[in-house]
Amino acid sequence: MDARLFDASQTGDVRLLHELLAENPLLLHRVALTSTENPLHVASIAGHVDFVKEIVRLKPDYVEEMNQDGFSPMHIASANGYLEIVREMLRVDNDRRLCRLQGRDEWTPLHYAASRGRVDVIREIVMACPESVEDVTVQGETVIHLAVKCSQFKAINYLVELVAERNKVNILNMKDKHGGDSVLHLATRKKQHQVVEGLVGNETIAGALEVNSVNDRGLTALDLVFPNETGDWEMEAILRGAGALRAGDIVHSGVQFSNSHSHNHNHTSSETHQLQQEQQKTNRWEYFQFKKGRDSPSDARTALLVVASLVATATFQVGLNPPNGIWQNSSGVNNDGAPSSHEPEHDAGKSIMGSYSKFKFVYFVVFNSIGFYCSLYTMGVLTANFPLQLELQICIGALYFAYCAAVINIAPSYYTRLIITVFLLVLPFLVGLAVKWARHLVTIRLTKPLGKWFLRFAGLIL
């Protein structure tokens, strides 16, 4: 884009725009040949209404053009809440295509307005194109899904009332592709009490809202409520008051109904119920597992850092104070100063377990050190791009060498100390090689028959 045209778009200078067009009447037509953005993109970001009006008048085709990031001017204005700009663009949208224009990940302008809570823009778009409220993203998310995910409560209330008035309650029961979750599933998981109460307590949609809808993991909204957690008692009461059940209770009710009609199907129903209960347990287990696209990588990193810190603390402490403790005196004398002939030869400050069995002590140190170093390695990986990186790495390295010095010092004999010293020195290299080997194995799993066979064989053993 011409630098002067970009400046005019960024500052909203309509006079400069006319001067540039007087110099080169084809300026707006040549933008597509030199840039992935047009002046309308820039003006929409800056919110210059008058400049947008002039560009739309001169070049109305610009309203549907996407920039390199997959955003049209309508997407940008909707996300930023520029109501007047949205109205101006809708005036040239005679066939109502602009309201449902799909950008990156098939998001429409209404999706962006809902995710940012732009209620005025939502109202304007829906008035112009009521069908736009039914559009879904590439992940199967409706506008209400996005509003719930982003905790935009004013937008949620407006959209729920809107679908109720227009008799489109089926939108509330639509499921996304992340895990087959409905709006009620999402609101329950995010503990949005007011949203859950607004959904199940709305008399207009009460009969059409599927409170017992089951997602891809076999869970109802009530299954996502855990009464032992703070505030979940209230949400459970709200859902149960609307007739919500846990998935296991729904299955049980179905089996009871079947048994009342036919005695011959008792055995089959019992087996079905048992299988479904087992499936329910499995689904619950999967619910707590990390799922890409559903769970935040930042939260996963935080959890891993906490676990790694706990492992490092435990292994460091037990390394300094191994099982059976440390001798308080040298061999030949008891704690009270009396001679002793029942103890193995030892020095004060050495491991008691190592004095009785050097093999057990080495065995203990090896596996404890593996756990300790792997926890430090995990912390190093998870904090790789943190500020003060050099200082953090020095701290981790100093902690490892302090651990090595302590463990070597309590070793009971020269050969034991030698074995442990060599192992602790090569352990970092062994862990690094093991990580590279594991990654290579994952790679050949998809490309090499041997890798596939090895992993299949390992799966059978485990």
Automatic annotation (TrEMBL):
By what name is this protein known? Ankyrin repeat-containing protein
Q: Transmembrane region positions?
A: 361-382, 394-412, 418-438
Where is the protein found, in the record's own terms?
A: Membrane
Q: Name the keywords, alphabetized.
A: ANK repeat, Membrane, Repeat, Transmembrane, Transmembrane helix
Q: Which organism is it from?
A: Pyrus ussuriensis x Pyrus communis
Question: What are the annotated GO cellular component locations?
Answer: plasma membrane
Q: Which InterPro entries match?
A: Ankyrin_rpt, Ankyrin_rpt-contain_sf, PGG_dom
Please give the PANTHER family that the UniProt record associates with this protein: PGG DOMAIN-CONTAINING PROTEIN, PROTEIN PHOSPHATASE 1 REGULATORY SUBUNIT
Q: Where are the ANK repeats?
A: 69-95
Q: Ranges for the PGG domain?
A: 299-415
Q: Which PROSITE patterns match?
A: ANK_REP_REGION, ANK_REPEAT
Q: How does it sit in the membrane?
A: Multi-pass membrane protein
- Please give the superkingdom of this protein's source: Eukaryota
